[in-house]
Amino acid sequence: MQKDSKNVLGTPLQSCCTDPMTGFYRDGFCKTGEQDVGTHVVCAIMTDDFLEHTKAKGNDLSTPRPEWQFPGLKAGDSWCLCISRWIEAEKAGKAPQVVLEATHEKALAYTDFETLLEYKA
């Protein structure tokens, strides 16, 4: 895990959400590291449309999974999404808005800043 993480704006990474507690490391930040094979770097604000889309794709984010410290999400919740899941939703026209200040700079290795800017919360 990187200590002084930066966001896609090049400034210090801000917290995405602590209620529910998000992030691969469950510290509220969309940080990533070698153990994070999903690259959970996009701080996104959930919508019903996105939650239905991702559930249909086999990634149910609305059902609580206590064994994974996962509360289940609802529209309006912020959550650190896998960059590949966000890109998939973006291509399908279902991408949720993104909090740029809380989206890790590693997202830029997968998509361009202009695309993220289109979804700025």
Question: How would you describe this structure to a colleague?
Answer:
The two termini are 26 Å apart. The chain has a three-stranded antiparallel beta sheet with strand order 2-1-3. The protein is built from three helices and three strands, in the order βαβαβα. With 121 residues, the chain is α+β, with helices and mostly antiparallel strands. It is 20% helix and 11% strand.
Low-confidence stretches: none
SS field, number of helical segments: 3
- The helical percent reads 10-25%
Provide the gyration radius in Å.
13 Å
Provide the fold topology.
Layout lengths: L39 E6 L2 H9 L21 E5 H9 L5 E2 L14 H6 L3
Features:
3 helices; alpha+beta; 121 residues; 3-stranded antiparallel beta sheet; globular
In short:
The protein is an alpha+beta fold and 121 residues long. It has helices at 48-56, 83-91, 113-118; strands at 40-45, 78-82, 97-98.
